[in-house]
Structures are given as C-alpha cells and as structure tokens.
Design goal:
The complex is a heterotrimer. By secondary structure, chain A is an all-alpha fold. Chain A is built from seven helices and one strand, in the order E-H-H-H-H-H-H-H. In chain B, strand 10 and strand 11 (251-256) form a beta hairpin. In chain B, helix 2 crosses helix 3, helix 3 crosses helix 4 (134-147) and helix 4 packs parallel to helix 5. Classes of the chains: A mainly alpha, B alpha/beta, C mainly alpha.
Chain lengths: 200, 438, 254
C-alpha cells in the first residue's frame, strides 16, 4: 500500500533519472574520448617526443567526464561515476592503453570529485568547474607516475607535464565542460536537473 | 474490500509551468475494472497516469496536492514504442520488471514465457529488440507489465504511434490480458472506438475535472467533407518519372499544383523514402524528378543540390516524429530558427493556438501541441510545397480536424500538399489525388 | 580452439587486471618481455591468431615507440650521455628505460585485444552486479545507456535531414560535424529521460530500498578461476624472473 502526499528525499541520494542521465553522459563522453584518442594521442606523443611534457596540453578532453558529471548531476559520486564509465567505454571500444585507462579514469574522477566535495556540492560556477578540471589533471599526473612511468623521467619533464596538464584541465575540461553543460541546458534536455533550470 | 486506487483532491503542477496540470481530482478504481479515459489533448490525462504510476517525481520536479492511495503493483505502457525498450533482448526486457520486484529467478522465466504468449509475441527470448515493429514493441512493454503481475495496468495512448495493423495487435493483446488476468485496466485513448467492446467504465477529463461518462457519450469520429478531386489539366508541381529511390521500385507520379495528394501503402513499402526524395532531402538513385517553376523560383540545379536555406524556402517537411525536428529551447525560438518574418511567425502561432506557449520548451508540450508546432515551423517560410509524414500519428480528434482544416486552407491558397498516411479518414478528406505505393 | 569460451565477462576484466597491473611496478625489459611472450603464446589458444592480434592491435604497436621516445629523451639522466640539448638528455639510463617501456606498452596493451573480444554489455553488466557486487542501479543504468547511445547511428540520418529541411544545414564540415555530435548528445539525453520514466514504470525506483533479483545468473566457474590464476601466475612470474635476474627496477627509479 503506498500513499503519497508529498515526497521528500535527501539531497544527496540519486534518483533514477540521475543514474540514467549520468550513464548517458558517461557513455557519450567515452565515445568522445575514443574519438579524441586518435587525435589527441597523435598530439600528445608528438609533443611528448619532441618537447618535455607539453603533451600535457591535450590532456583536458580526457578529463571532461568528471567535470560534466559533477556539474549536471550535482550529487556525491557523480564525477567519479561519469569519468570511470567514460574511461571504461573508451577502453572497451579499444584503445592503446588498455587497463591503464581504467586507472586513469578512477584517479581523474577522484580529482574532480574532491573539488566538488570541497565546495560541499553546492557551488557549480565556472571557477569551480575550472578547479575541478585542474583537480582531475592532478589525478592524471599522479597516476601517470606509475602507468607511464613518469616517475622515471626527469624533474623538468614532470614539472612541465604537470603544469601543462593543469592548464589543459582548466581550459579543455573546466571551461569547455562548463560551456557544454550550459549549451545542453539551453536545449532543455536537462530540465529535470537544477543545472537545466536555474542560472548558476 | 478496499479499492485498488483512491485519489482525493489530487493535483500536480510541473516545476517549469505556472498553471497546474491537474487540479482537485478524485477517483476510485476497483479491482478488475476496465476503464477508458478520454479528454482533450493537454487536459492532463498523461499527468494523471503518471501520478497513478508513481512517476511524478519529487519536489524537485513539481508540487503535489491531495492524496493518492494504491493498494497493489502498478505497471504502465507508454505511448512511444521506442522509448520503453529497456534491454537488447526480448526475454530480458520482459524480465526486467520481475527482477525489480524481487521475484525469484525460478519464477521469472515461466512468467516471461506466459506473458509473451498472452500478448501474442511468438519470438525466441534472445530476439533483438531493435528489430521489432512498433506494434511489437508496445506488446513487449505490455508483456513486461503483465509478467510483473501488475494489479493496475495503465496504458497511455498505446496505439497512437502505430499503423492500423499494430493498433489491432495491441487491442487484441490487451483483450487477451483482460480475459486471462483480473488486472484493472486504465486506458487513455483518442481512438476510443477500438476499445469500447472491452471497457466497462468511461471517464472524461477536462478543465472542470474528472467526469463519469458512458459509451454513448464518447466523442464520435469526426465527419469531414470528402476530398475534391483534381481539376483536369492541373499542371503538376512535382513530377517524378521512374524515380528510383534507395528503397523500392522506380515510381512515376505527379503532385498536382494546389491540390492535396495522399500517399498510402503498406508498411515497409518505402513511402517515407519516396516523400523525402520528392522533397529534396534524399538523393534519388535514378530516374527523373522535375520541379515546376513555381517551386523552383529561379533555381536551376536539381533540388538535392540546393542549399538547405534555399530548400527550406520552397519545400516544407513535417516529420513523423515532431521531436526530430525541434532544435531550439522555446517555441518562439523554434519558429525563428529559419529566419522568417516576425508577422508571419505571430500569425502562425495564433492560427495554431500556440501563442500562449511561446516561452515553453517544445519538448514539454502535449502531443497535439508538438504536432501543431512542427507544422508551424514548416510553414514559416511560406513554401510552395508542404510534405507531411504521418501527420495524424498520436493526434486527438480535435487536432485531427484542425489539421485537416489547415491543409485544406493551404490548398485553397495554392500551396501544394503531399501527405503520407495510414488514416482512412484523412485520405477520404484530403485525397484529391491518391497515390498508392507498393 | 578458444580457452576463453564460456568464461564470465567479468573474468576477462579481472584477468586483464591481474595480468598487467603487476607489470606496472617495474620498468625493466625482462618482466615486460616475459609477460609479452606469455601473451603471444596464449593468444592463438584464446581464439586470437597473430594476424588478428596485429590487425586489432596496431594502435598499440604504434603507441610503443611513441612512448619510448619521450623516455629516451627525458628519462632521468644516469650513465654515459649520448646527447644533451636543452632539456633533452639521452643517457644510458634513459635508453634502457626507453627499451623497457617499449616492451611494456606491448605487454600491457596486447592482452586487451585478446581479452576484450565480443563482450555483450548485458552479460557484462550481470557479471559486474552479481559477481563483483557493484551497485545494481548504476550497472543497469550503464548498460541501458550503452544500448541507448548505440542507437545514434540510426539517428544521424534523420537528424541530418531534419536540419536540411529547416534550412540550417549550410555550414562548414567541422561545424556541421560538431553540431550533429551535439545534437546526438541532446537526443541521447532526451531518450535517457524517457527511458528513466519507462524503467520507473517497471518498478526500477524500488531497487534502491529493496534490491532486486536477477533473471540471468552470472557465476564464476572453475574455468574462470583457472584463467585468472594463470594470468596472475604469469605476471608474478614475470616480475619474479626480473627480480631473480636483477633487472627489476621499481617504477624505473630503483
């Protein structure tokens, strides 16, 4: 027997629509990653081959999942879920990094998640998005120390890689991600989310 | 014996709208009843169903007033066949609801098999759902609801987006379900005639609320004046000779100027492909397609080579699914997309009764309103040719009559119209020139 | 013959993790070579001929040298210097690391080709939820979204036509592509919203409080255990041999 008068729910618990939309964002972002793999990869490795660490500038696209997930769903775990799902999809579609992709996804997702958590999941402005992008790139830097053995590369390389990565995270994930969410909200496709209704 | 459903003073307002969709609704449904709900498009029928199904959302989505008590499991079949396919295999899709209700595994597959048999879907359990027709998808959803053992089965215009064959399949399936189980049926429909033999209670929803009604009180199918036929010697606006599209045999046909042509034919014959090719949206593979000067308005190349802007000014196309052609955030923006003059936009919004929805998101409109908007957007540039693909899909009788009236008005003004339809009444009223595609 | 036939999809992922993760502990050519050798030997036994490995694995074959070069140029300088220019510092150490990372990229990447063939999302989802006990709602959401997004191929045509019919399709190639991609994303989101309603209409919203049962059982059998053990043994052996031979270099720095 169910009687419904009014329904309240903890702000942090996930509705079905949250899960499905987060999943769609994750899968779609995974597709974007997969496409970017061929382009961005060429850049990264070319740059990495020629310059110390400037390959990090292409990094940002791979950090989009966490940023967008957090901005749209606005609940704990969103950034991690979307980024990991995106990484898993791009890995399953086939890329050159295999299982490392998954580890990257987890680390990058956590990086973005920590930023949203730091703002208590209440602020989703452009600066927050950019910080989340930066956080994700730090996650990437840390995990790459192991997966790409960056820890065995020179200090100069790593400092430049980290800096470029953070810049890329801020712009290609933070700025672009924020803009993308705004554009999606503009179509009304996110009307069941706060991101789609209010102005942030 | 408690009622299955008891609603008192139920009301609901969407978060993004000002006016409530439902106000002060009181309803009592007993077990085993078979109820038909009719009402104008936009009256709140879908909202009521959503409330019964527990799908209205929480306070993020809107405000609820009043109470609603349901003593049993509820399952709902939605209007759009494509959007309720959940799994990629038939068996898994039907089993989904059972899994959510924590039915033990040993019981699930027998239920799935029984449900599929009941709705007449004689398919292997691993048949891909992608390959199902519209009618089959609706029956699949119904099977999923039955397998759950739903006490209350809600059906939201289940035949609206189906061709006549699909409609019959669904009605037969629901009739079989009613006979075999004692689930309560609550059906919302615009085509009540199909359902009358099955129902034992009739309700009507309008601005004043929910009313009891009778079978006799059901709206009769509209009576429309017959089509006019084409005056001999009318030149064709579009002429196809052995036109070979990417699907089907070469075809020869004319679209007489200023008349309404109706294209009919069985499913899968290639009507949509033909219409798209005639409208310059699909490249033909062979044969000849000639546009009269009234349509070309100075352009020389074949229509498939025209820029989209040039095409939009000459040919308007109304797609089968209005949502496929919406690109903007509000109705007003949607009309402004193709860059027509503002007076024309205002006039169209007024004629199609959409002015009060100018700031609404096109995707939140009711089915009838979406259809009117899709026609309005195609007319913004005052095209000489208007092509409509199944314009009456999912429409209530009022919109249907309006649409027919509008098309007739357009032909009176000299616009050439071509429609693809399954609907006999539409063909009867607007079939000045009939083309059958096989 | 295919030793992997009939294993749980989850086993493929776990096997991949077990086979390749330990290799990440060291940047040395011995461990990488042993693991790579194992993969090359095992591939034909798992239904992936060397030809297929080459065809599907070519991105990895390209990635290997492209990963080695930065290591050669920017690896920590130790030993004899061969080239020193600005920040580029090619030394014994960096060359050794470069060779090792070259082989390691192959060793870590090629098993994916072998293990990731033909995974059905629904079966994978069943495994993730029932075997690994990942949260059911999220796994099901991911599976449903995968199916939904894969419909985009059908939508591409109707979207192109709709844009052309509305008069807004005259743009440059790139802009057109981006607009379409955006449109597809929007379409997927709208479909997702409707799908969420449909799933709730079949009781999905109850799963959070009550859990759910599974119509298709996903279990691990003996074969799964064997596959995973073999992979673990292979990677541990690779590391072990490297340690025994003295070539083990923890993360490439020790």
């Amino acid at each position: 027997m169910t009687t419904t008068a009014a329904r309240t729910r903890a702000r942090s618990s996930w509705r079905v629509i949250d899960i499905i939309i987060a999943s769609v964002l994750g899968v779609a972002t995974g597709l974007i990653f997969w496409v970017w793999n061929s382009l961005g990869f060429a850049w990264t490795t070319a740059m990495d081959a020629l310059t110390p660490g400037f390959g990090g500038l292409a990094l940002g696209i791979w950090l989009l999942g966490g940023v967008i997930g957090g901005l749209v769903i606005r609940k704990p775990g969103a950034a991690i879920f979307v980024e990991v799902l995106a990484a898993a999809v791009s890995a399953l579609l086939g890329n050159q990094w295999g299982i490392e992709t998954l580890y990257h996804g987890i680390a990058q997702g956590i990086g973005a998640e920590l930023v949203f958590a730091a703002f208590a999941y209440r602020r989703f402005t452009l600066p927050v998005a950019m910080l989340a992008g930066a956080g994700a790139s730090v996650g990437n830097f840390l995990v790459s120390l192991f997966t790409s053995a960056n820890i065995a590369k020179s200090l100069a390389f790593n400092s430049i890689y980290l800096t470029c990565g953070v810049i890329s995270g801020v712009i290609l994930a933070g700025l672009l991600g924020h803009w993308l969410v705004k554009a999606l909200a503009g179509t009304g496709a996110l009307d069941r989310f706060a991101a789609g209704r209010k102005r942030v | 014996m408690t009622a299955l459903v008891e609603a008192r003073g139920l009301g609901w307002r969407h978060a993004s709208r000002v006016d409530p969709a439902l106000e002060n609704i009181s309803l009592r449904l007993e077990r085993g009843e078979k109820v038909l709900l009719t009402g104008r498009s936009g009256a709140g029928k879908s909202t009521l169903l959503a409330a019964l199904a527990g799908l209205l959302g929480d306070e993020e989505d809107g405000d609820q007033t009043g109470t609603l008590t349901i003593d049993g499991t509820v399952g709902m079949v939605l209007q759009d066949p494509d959007s309720q396919v959940i799994a990629s295999r038939v068996g898994d899709d039907v089993a989904f609801g059972c899994e959510n209700l924590r039915i033990p595994r040993e019981e699930i597959w027998p239920r799935v098999r029984r449900a599929l048999d009941l709705v007449g879907l004689d398919l292997p359990l691993d048949h891909p759902t992608r390959h199902l027709s519209g009618g089959q998808k609706q029956r699949l959803a119904l099977a999923g609801v039955i397998a759950m053992g739903a006490d209350l089965i809600l059906l939201d215009e289940p035949t609206a987006n189906l061709d006549p064959v699909g409609q019959r399949e669904v009605v037969e399936a629901v009739t079989a379900v009613a006979a075999e189980t004692d689930a309560t049926l609550f059906v919302v429909e615009h085509r009540p005639q199909l359902w009358v033999p099955l129902m034992d209670r009739f309700l009507h929803l309008d601005e004043d609320g929910l009313h009891e009604s009778t079978a006799a009180g059901l709206p009769a199918p509209p009576v429309l004046p017959a089509a006019r036929g084409v005056a001999p010697g009318t030149p064709p606006l579009v002429s196809a000779r052995d036109l070979q599209t990417i699907w089907g045999p070469p075809r020869t046909l004319d679209l007489p100027q200023g008349a309404s042509t109706v294209i009919t034919g069985p499913n899968g014959a290639g009507k949509s492909t033909l219409a798209l090719t005639l409208a310059g949206l699909l490249d033909p593979v062979g044969g000849e397609l000639t546009y009269a000067e009234e349509l070309r308005q100075g352009l020389r190349k074949s229509p498939h080579a025209w820029s989209s802007r040039q095409l939009a000014q000459r040919v308007g196309y109304v797609f089968q699914d209005p949502e496929h052609q919406f690109v903007a955030r509000t109705v007003a923006e949607e009309m402004a997309v193709s860059g027509g003059p503002q007076e024309r936009i205002d006039e169209l919004l007024h004629r199609l009764r959409l002015t009060h929805l100018a700031e609404a998101n096109p995707f939140t409109l009711s089915g009838g309103e979406k259809r009117r908007l899709s026609v309005a957007t195609a007319l913004v540039n005052a095209p000489a040719l208007l092509v409509l693909d199944e314009p009456t899909f999912g429409q209530d009788p009022t919109t249907f009559v309006e649409l027919v009236g509008m098309v007739r008005e357009l032909t009176d003004r000299g616009v050439t119209v071509a429609s693809i339809t399954h609907d006999e009444l539409y063909a009867h009223a607007l079939g000045d020139h009939l083309v059958e595609v096989r | 013959m295919n030793l992997l036939a009939g294993i749980n999809p989850v086993t493929r992922i776990l096997a991949l993790i077990l086979l390749t993760t330990p290799l990440l502990l060291s940047v040395d050519i011995v461990s990488a070579a042993v693991a790579l050798g194992f993969t090359l030997l095992a591939a034909p036994l798992c239904g992936v001929s060397w030809g297929r490995l080459l065809r599907r694995g070519w991105p990895i074959l390209m990635a290997a040298p492209l990963a080695a070069v930065p290591m050669a140029l920017y690896g920590r300088p130790e030993g004899e210097t061969y080239l020193h220019f600005l920040l580029i510092h090619v030394t014994d150490n960096s060359l050794q690391l470069a060779a090792a990372i070259f082989v390691r990229v192959l060793a870590v990447g090629l098993p994916v080709v072998v293990l990731s063939a033909d995974v059905d999302p629904t079966d994978l989802g069943d495994g993730l939820a029932q075997v690994l006990h990942l949260p059911a709602r999220f796994v099901l959401g991911a599976v449903a979204a995968t199916r939904l997004v894969s419909l985009f191929r059908d939508d591409l045509d109707s979207m192109r036509r709709a844009r052309r019919a509305r008069g807004i399709a005259d743009q440059g190639r790139i802009r057109h592509f981006l607009t379409l991609a955006f449109g597809l994303l929007v379409l997927s989101l709208r479909r997702g919203t409707k799908l969420a309603t449909a799933m709730e209409a079949r009781g999905f919203n109850r799963v959070a409080e009550h859990g759910r049962t599974w119509a298709r059982e996903s279990t691990l059998s003996g074969r799964d255990g064997v596959v995973m053990s073999v992979c673990l043994v292979a990677s541990v052996a690779a590391i072990g041999i490297a340690v025994a031979v003295g070539s083990f270099r923890f993360l490439g720095v020790a």
